[in-house]
Amino acid sequence: MKQTGQPGPPTDPIIGIDLGTTNSLVAYCDERGPRILEGPDGQRLLPSVVRYNEAIASVEAVGQEASTHAVEHPQNTVSSSKRLMGRSIGDLKDDLDYLPFAVVEGDHNTARIKIGKHLLSPQEVAAVILSELRGWAEATLGTKVRKAVVTVPAYFDDAQRQATRDAGRIAGLQVVRIVNEPTAAALAYGLDSGTANRVSGVGKKEDGSLSLSTKLNPQACASESQSQATNHQPPSQTLAVFDLGGGTFDVSVLRMMQTEQGRIDQVLSTAGDTHLGGDDADRMIVELIQKEVRAQFGEQIEFPASTRQAFRNLAEATKIRLSNETSAQIEVDLGTDGDGNARVYQRTLTRDEFEEMIGLLVDKTIRCCEDALRNAKCKTEDIGRVVMVGGSTRIPLVCRRVGELFYTEPYTALNPDEVVALGAAVQGSILAGINRDMLLLDVTPLSLGIETMGGAVSKLIMANSTIPAQATEMFSTYVDGQTNIKVHVLQGERELVGDCRSLGEFELKGIPPMPAGLPKVEVTFLVDANGVLSVQAVEKRSEKRASIQIVPNHGLTREEVDRMEAESYEHAAQDMTAHRLIDLRNQARLDIRAIEKQLAKVGDEMDADYRAQVENNVAQVKIMADDPGADPDRFHEALDKMDQSTVRLAELAITITLREEQGA
Ligand code: ADP
Ligand code: MG
């Protein structure tokens, strides 16, 4: 998309930081909406891990490098410093067993991390992470950064919040606001207001390619947009935020209200487990590998630190792979045994096996949700939205179980590990006063649709539809035996994919092979009251389904929407012609394929004149189809002529097929 005039660096920006137990992120929000600020290598997550030099306690590595080698340097690699911040040594009894580095008592019962002979406060370690993120932000924004909104768990007490502020100060950042993590997640989705919705959030984007095609029957299945007015929204809404990270699990029930004075958010209850998370799943996979390696190569086999590190990294990678695939291959080379024989351990871990392993872990999170609901005096049906936060909510089983509990599809449109930082940035922009002009959304500002064969856009929801809005349309395949269909979701007023904005795509897999045109794919768009778009595709014959959620309106200003609308008027005639040509070409290709099949079958039984006439008509249509500048009216005429001339051919083909079947 073109932009008129590049904005210069913001003056005195307020960044948003998610200071996580496992990973930390930084984000910034301007008029265009919030976005994650990346590190020098394009990384979006900074593992909250710092390795110190043992002798002088200087910082040796921060982030990924420190995390990847943590098991090899257990005594001088500090992770989970967030668990220690603002807590006394007495508070930490339960945590100390989990930490591989030494924690001792400092002044006033405080906890201190011991590196060699040196004592460090947890705030100093957190400050190293905050400084690193500040550096990322300064490099991306091209300006000094001195202010930040930092998020903390809802259950953090005053001492823990104060410690977070102190960590900021050590890192040269004024923490202008501490925001609860669940509140930040809700803000990123624009769920803060009951009457209008702030445009915010960044939709998942992947590169699209096309595959859906011809509509089955545009007349019969015309889009049935059924919009309803939404002026009756309650002034407050209750939501649940489910946050499963690396080592901690929290669920919060929030009430968000919009009043004349601004937003009020109330944490009605929190529940959770400070030692439950993705790390547990990693540990289970490591234990499985170790057990099987011992069974295969003997009980006496030893696992030095580098091997344990490799197990850990492999386990996490396997777990992450199983979020997208139904099985993952594991292979570990354990070197040679005493007799020089190679020892290679191999196995396949299926998603089913993995889900069975983590079943109890997920059960625990569900029980916590029930506790949180009880404490908030809420029933599941009182919960309007469920927001998923934390990298571990990418595990399909987790999402499924949460959806079942709350009878609603959880919000996953924003990356669960980024949503807290994005929300912190939104809060920062509100405090900086730059977010007031953001588009308020009671209507979809731009049309929403999907890509069809040949690069045309089929719109399901038109611009300015009142939300919530829903539309359903039928599509089919274009290629014989097509078993996967890509659904590419687009936003914009223009007719061609290249002129619209790609919002994301997903694949409908496992359709049984059928001739082109036979599968019935029902695509449903639903924009809910918060502007979150869910797109679902169902193949009706096989009942295969797939879906995606998107925040479709990310960072569009009123001017941009106006410009896009104006462009669409300007190009209307030209775009319509292009769209018509694409439709004609698709139709021509389908018809010619059918005619050629029939010719191959019965061509020899046709009289020569008729055959020549058909072939000539087909050739004319092919010329039109290959001509990018074809006149659509003449193309249409040629297509009609071809179709009419082949009626007899089709009848002949049917007669011969019947004759063959009777003869057989
Ligand atoms: P925290 O809030 O505790 O700092 P995150 O929200 O970043 O942590 O979550 C980190 C956890 O998410 C890690 O255990 C990581 O392995 C897990 N994780 C990240 N991506 C995926 C994925 N695609 N599938 C399963 N787990 C994932
Ligand atoms: Mg987190």
Describe this structure in words.
With 664 residues, this protein is an alpha+beta fold. Among the domains are: 14-183, 2-Layer Sandwich (Nucleotidyltransferase, domain 5), CATH 3.30.420.40; 448-555, Substrate Binding Domain Of DNAk, Chain A, domain 1; 571-663, Substrate Binding Domain Of Dnak, Chain:A, Domain 2 (Up-down Bundle). It has 17 helices and 26 strands. Strands 1, 2, 3, 4, 11 and 12 form a 6-stranded mixed β-sheet that branches. A hairpin with a 4-residue loop joins strand 25 and strand 26 (544-550). Magnesium ion is lined by residues 20, 243, 245, 390, 420.
Question: Could you give the topology of this structure?
Answer:
Blueprint: E1 14-18, E2 23-30, E3 33-36, E4 46-47, E5 49-52, E6 59-62, H1 64-68, E7 77-79, H2 81-84, H3 93-96, E8 102-105, E9 111-115, E10 118-120, H4 122-141, E11 147-152, H5 158-170, E12 174-180, H6 181-188, E13 236-244, E14 249-259, E15 262-273, H7 278-297, H8 305-321, E16 327-336, E17 342-350, H9 351-357, H10 359-375, E18 385-389, H11 396-406, H12 419-432, E19 448-452, E20 456-461, E21 469-475, E22 485-491, E23 501-508, E24 521-527, E25 533-539, E26 544-550, H13 558-570, H14 572-602, H15 608-626, H16 632-645, H17 647-663
Parallel strand pairs: 1-11, 11-12, 13-18
Antiparallel strand pairs: 1-2, 2-3, 2-4, 5-6, 5-7, 8-9, 9-10, 13-14, 14-15, 16-17, 19-20, 19-22, 21-24, 22-23, 24-25, 25-26
The structure holds adenosine-5'-diphosphate (ADP) and magnesium ion.
